[in-house]
Amino acid sequence: MFPADCQYTKNHEYLKPLGDGTALIGITHYAQEALGDVVFVQLPEVGAAMAAGEEFGTVESVKTVSECYLPSDGEVLEANGELEAHPEFVNEDPYGKGWMLKIKLVGSINPELLDAKAYEIHVVSEAL
Amino acid sequence: MASAKKQTPLFDWHKSHGANLVEFGDYLMPVWYASARNEHLAVVSLAGLFDTSHMATLRVFGKDAFELLQWCFTRNLNACVGKDNAPLTDGRCVYGAFLDEYGNAIDDSLVYKIIDGEYMVVVNASMGGLVAKHVAEQAKGRDVNVIDLTDQLGKIDIQGPASIKVMAKILRNPEAVFDKLPYFSAKGHFDPASTLAGQVQLADGTPMLLSRSGYTGEVGFELFVERAHTVKVWEAIVAAGEEFGLTPCGLAARDSLRTGAVLPLSHQDIGPWTFIHHPWPFALPFTPAGDGFTKAFHGSAALEKASDAPYTLTFVGHDLRKVDAHNARVYLDGKEIGTVLTCATDMAIGRHEGKIFSIASPEKPAGLAIKGLCCGFIKVGSKLAPGTAVEIKDGKRAIQVVIETDVRPDRTARKALKTFL
Fold it and tell me: Is residue B137 part of a domain?
């Protein structure tokens, strides 16, 4: 449920480093399950430079509209255009077809991000 | 302090079938199983099954039961059925509300006439005790009993065009049950001692009260059974419905379906404010000219004096995006005019050149991709004409919506039952 090659925010975004100074950003399996059917995803323009913790988009589900925050400083290289026609990819495959942004990492990766183990503990404690 | 939440008889079934549970009116209820969107769509095109055992049922019976309800309830029971305003006869039910002395809604309700001197009143979750107390207080020496059956019954709603075929498979005598069963009528009884108990039974003889009504705008039934039979009836329907695509549904789909059917939610769209500008004027016993009421009832004096009562109006957006109704306001030409009461997405509708079509619309344009439309209710100080464009805005988002009198077209609730067999 929480791949070891990703790092996580307490707000349930993930960052998946691709090894070439870029990373994929999305929301976690736990987040998509809590939201329910994702029906609309709003993403930023390519080229935008953003800081860790900055709002990069919104995910609208049947239940609510939630903001997504960037896990680490970066510049938007690509936004997943497939999500416009298929927002359900966020539910079906959050770490694969449901990715949201590809960013160019600026500086080192945010040290506050959690590894898979620490994120799992965070999720369990939040559910209690 | 967290209070212990109540469970319906189907709680274990919901849990073992993957339901996401939420607190609603003192109960832990399914909000959705796998997908609220698919559940909503299933009810519009196939069938869905809802556990509504959290709703409360009252018995009002005795020589003066009619007189008491005529005083407490907002419908004139002598003139409320059909276009001709016929009296409420055995086996018919009507929608209305119970008001306090200020004309504010205590709760909305369906009132059923079972037989002379025997009425059934269905109210919202956790409202059984409160409404029973209110009605009993108004009895004032009348020969009538009010009994709150909260948590003594199971209630299951089967809704959607395949509902009739599903029920036909499990009822002992479906032809007789479906014969002369108009919208807002009922047959049978959950109490085996009732003289009506033989009218509607499962194949094994389990009696039920079957009401041709619901809260989705689609054709279907509300079933009332003794609490001990709830799981058995539910499982029989699930098994019979499999071949028809019947889907268990949670409260999220129920909320979006009722919003698309312009059905207000008590304590959200109607509530502790003057109950005079309801989206459905028939909820009050207006004279044909609309200049007064055809009877006096508890709260009517306050309604007659009300001069600045708010309006509950329905709206539809241009795409599926919504706002957070809990802190959203309504703007007309930039000026704040009211608050948002409900904002949901009816996933079964879309717009084409401004006109709304449903996935069930026979004349929907070929190739129209239906993704859903935001819709809901607002509370404003003065009436707005249908077609008026307003803006609704929460802290983050502003969307343009249009005041409408209807939302999801081509609903099936009122169609003849034989067309579904």
Answer: yes
